[in-house]
Amino acid sequence: MVKSKLQNESPYAIVICLDSLSGIQTARILAQRGIPVIGIAKKPDHFACQTNVCEKILITDTDSDELIHTLETLRPTLKDKAVLFPCSDTSVLVLARHQEKLDASYHVMLPPAGVIEMMVDKVRFYQFAQAHNFPITETSFLCSRKDAEEAARKLTFPVILKPPYRPDEWRKHTREKAFKVLNAEELLSRYDQCSEWADSLIVQGWIEGPDTNHVTCNCYFDSNSEPLVTFTSRKLRQWPQKTGQGCFGEAYKDDHVASETINLYQSLGFRGLAYLEMKRDERTGKYFIIEPNVGRPTGRSATAEANGVELLYTMYCDTIGRPLPENREQKDGTVKWIYLRQDTQSALTSWFHGELTLREWLRSIRGPKWDAIYSRTDPAPFWYDMWGAVKYQIKRKLGK
After folding, report:
1. For 369-400, how does the pLDDT look when each residue is reduced to its tens digit (9 = 90+)?
2. For a Cys-Cys bond, which of 23, 116, 355, 387 suits 350, CB 3.0-4.6 Å?
3. Does 323 map to a domain?
4. Which residue range(s) make up the domain with 175?
5. Is residue 155 assigned to a domain?
6. Which of 177, 205, 233 is at the close of a domain?
C-alpha cells in the first residue's frame, strides 16, 4: 500500500475484530479517509482477513486478556497513540475492563466498565429500562422451568424467546438470534430445548409489524456526553427473517428514535459510539426498544457513511484532537446498504412464501448502493465469503 502524506501524519486506527462484518466495513471506511489501519482478528481464515486495506493484520484472541497483551506488544512499534475501534461486544468489554491501563498508550473512547457491562447484558439492561421507564415490551426473565411456566400463564402471545447473549453452546445448535413463540405450550417446549444452551433466557412481547418498522440510531458522544453525530436508518429486509439482522436498509430520518437514543445514553453519561434499535408496533404506533449496542461500530455505521454522515471519522478526529469533519448532519440520503448474499437468501425465502416477486426484489435494490462486503478495489473478501457460503451448504447436504 502506498501511503499518502495524510497517512504519514495520522495516528493509526486499530480495528479490533476485523473478522466481522462491522470490522471489515470500519477498516475500509477509515482507510478511505487516508488513515493507516491495523487489523486485529481471532480467525485468520475469515473472509474479512483477506482485505488489502490494512497495513498489517495481527492474530490473537480478541475475547480475552490476550488482546491486551497484543496491544502492549504493538505499542512500541507505533509513533503516536493509536485510536482503538473494537467491533464486538466481547472486545469492548475487554478494553473497558483494562481502560485505565490502556489510556496511557492508546485512545480508548469508552464509558466506565460498569456501564458497558450493564448495556451488553440484556437482563441487566432490560431491568434498567424497566426501572427508568424506557419503552420496552412486557418482559420476563427465565432462570428455571418454574419461571417459564409462570411466564406461559401470564404473557400475551405471540412472544419472542432469546438468550441475554449468545454463548458458544447456543451458536453450536442454532444460527437464530431468537425464536418467535405462538402459544404457552410452544414456549415451554422451546424453553426445555434452549435452556440446555444458555444459563438464562428472556421472553418478551412480540412487536407486530414489518421489517421496515425497525428503526436504528447510530450516535457518537464526546467526553462530555454531547452527541456530535446522530444518524437514523431502517431495515428493509433481514436474515434470518423475523428475528435476524438487517441485510438491506436505507437512511430514514426519525426524530423520535434519535431523541430516545440521546436520552438513554445521556442518562448514563455515555461517551463513544452508541446504537439503539427500536421497532414501531403496527397495532398501537408506539416505539419499543429492541436492543442497544455500545462502544463499537455496527453494520448500520456504514449506512451513515454511505449517505455522507462521517460517523467513524468524527470519532477519530474528536479523539485525537483534529478538527471535526463538516459532514455530521443527516440529510435526505438515497444510498441503500446491502449485504447481497444474505439479502438474496431473504428475498428467495420471501419469494418461496409468496411475499415477494423477482420484479419487486429487483426494483427494491435499484439505485445507488453500498455493499457490505463487495468492493471493486478490495474484492477478495467478497469471493471468500461466497465460497464459505457454498462450502457451508455442501457440508449441510452431506450431513457433516
Report:
1. 999 999 999 999 999 999 888 887 777 767 65
2. 355
3. no
4. 138-205
5. yes
6. 205
Report the CATH number at residue 86: 3.40.50.720
User: CA 34, CA 55: separation in Å to the nearest integer?
Assistant: 12
- Going by pLDDT thresholds of 50, 70 and 90, the confidence category of residue 333 is confident
Cis peptide before 158 (omega within 30 of 0): yes
Distance CA 316, CA 35 (A): 9
Q: Does pLDDT of 105 surpass 90?
A: yes
179-181 vs 201-205, strand pairing mode: unpaired
Regarding whether 29 and 106 lie in a shared domain, the answer is yes
Answer whether 46's CB lies under 8 Å from 23's CB: no
Find the largest Cα–Cα distance for the chain: 66
Whether residues 104 and 17 fall in one domain: yes
The DSSP symbol for 371 reads: E
Q: What are phi and psi of 11, to 5 degrees?
A: -60, 155
Across-strand partners of 234? 215, 250
Burial 144-161 (b: 16+ CB within 10 A, else e): eeebbeebbeebeeebbb
Q: What single letter denotes the amino acid at residue 249?
A: G
Backbone phi, then psi, for 392, in 5-degree steps? -60, -45
Do the bridges between strand 336-338 and strand 369-371 make them parallel or antiparallel, or are there none, so unpaired? parallel
**What are 120-137's pLDDT values in tens digits?**
988 899 999 999 999 999
Based on the structure, what is the number of domains in the chain?
Answer: 2
Both 18 and 86 in a single domain?
yes
83: left (phi over 0), alpha (psi -120 to 50) or beta: beta
- For residue 178, the one-letter residue type is A
Mode of pairing for the β-strands spanning 106-107 and 82-86: parallel
Sign of CA dihedral 94, 95, 99, 104: positive
- Separation of alpha carbons 268 and 275, rounded Å: 14
∠ at Cα 114 (110, 120), nearest 5°? 80
pLDDT, mean over the chain: 92
* Among candidate residues 31, 18, 14, the one with its CA nearest the CA of residue 85: 14
Give the CATH number, domain containing residue 170.
3.30.1490.20
